[in-house]
Design a protein that fits this description.
Cytochrome Bc1 Complex, Chain D, domain 2, 69% helix, binds heme C
Length: 114
């Protein structure tokens, strides 16, 4: 019996440790996820720095994320543009999960704080 309780304690402890690690690691990971999505799917038009100065960005008229008129748009407006598309901006509703869209919006915001 004591042996079983000991095992239970070990399981409980490792469970709690796993949860604690998850809480610590998740914010850092999601920042990385937004960056990964952006570099893989968005930078071809919007540019690594978000200024849209790539050939595809110029051809489609992508605007600089950090310009005053784009920066003042809310996260919700950006999310709608990413999910539903807008003019030459493709819709990503079938290509990205809600969490990925949220991460990538946060990543774009972080580009303009530099
Ligand atoms: C084919 C080129 C292209 C790709 C790829 C692309 N975009 Fe865009 N994006 C545009 C264009 C062009 C606009 C401007 C749309 C408009 O308002 O006419 C835009 C607008 C936006 C906006 C709104 C800001 C604004 O200028 O109005 C956000 C946010 C955005 N894109 C994010 C993304 C994200 C995130 C990805 C990758 C998942 C992505 N874009 C991929 C071309 C692109």
């Amino acid at each position: 019996m004591t042996k079983r309780i000991g095992l239970l304690n070990v399981l409980l402890f490792s469970g709690a440790a796993t949860v604690a690690m998850f809480l610590l690691v998740t914010p850092a990971m999601s920042q990385g996820a937004g960056e990964k999505v952006y570099k893989a799917k968005c930078a071809s038009c919007h540019g690594a720095d978000g200024a849209g100065a790539t050939p595809a960005g110029k051809a489609t008229k992508a605007r600089d994320f950090c310009s005053d008129e784009v920066k003042k748009e809310t996260d919700e407006e950006w999310t709608t543009t990413i999910v539903k598309g807008k003019n030459k901006m493709p819709a990503y509703d079938k290509k990205l999960t809600d969490a990925e869209v949220k991460d990538v919006v946060a990543y774009i915001r972080s580009l303009c704080k530099k």
